[in-house]
Amino acid sequence: MTFTVDPGGDKKKACYYLPWGGDRAYRIRLDSKTIPRVFFTAALDGCSVVVEGNVMLPSVYHANAAGTLPKQSPIGDTSCLEKIALGVISKRNEVMFGACAAFPADWNAWYLQHQSDFPDLVKSAAAVTALEYGVLIGRQSAKQELRAAMSQPIVAKQLLESQKFVQSSGSVFGVLGDDERWHFYMQRVVELDNGEFAVLRCVEFWPTGFSRSLDNP
After folding, report:
1. What domain of life is recorded for the organism (predicted)?
2. How many CB atoms lie within 10 A of CB 44?
3. Cβ(189)–Cβ(137) under 8 Å?
4. So what's the pLDDT on residue 95?
5. The whole model's pTM is what?
6. Where are the domains of the chain?
7. CA atoms within 13 A on the CB side of 105
8. Backbone φ and ψ of 72, nearest 5°
9. pLDDT score at 7
């Protein structure tokens, strides 16, 4: 698909896009020798994104498990106690990680099996889940997140007008660097009661930086 940084302009750039579906997992393999140098996936409000393999040709998964414990909405449901909410998220992660692992072996399977031979080129699977991008609205962790956000001058300036978190979501994007290797980033996003959105955190999670192992849902 294509995107533009100027909605009113005609200049568009090609990009990779990975969709999502309820109780489904999708996979795409990116390339470093084609025109798209940017990757997007849909906004996250419970899904998990997994990246693995050759840093020049990574495989990316977007998984959903809304049907697991479907009556619980842990991120936005303030009636769901924090401990229970974290348990629900972890259970769904377990299901989503299993769905990703169930895909047939692809190009990166061989690289992962020989990872020790290519330590700088091949990286194990890493995930971004609701445990990373989510803010449990109305609970203790939300207060902790607000305090952390207020310590960042750029974010604090935006939060001075409104410090009430209404909704939580996340986003994942990838950029093909000048080194011809893909780098993936996670954003933690909240909607404020004045209708604005604030990015509380933006960090690289693969192939370096923060990441969650699939062995620890």
Report:
1. Bacteria
2. 27
3. no
4. 97
5. 0.91
6. 16-205
7. 5
8. -105, 135
9. 65
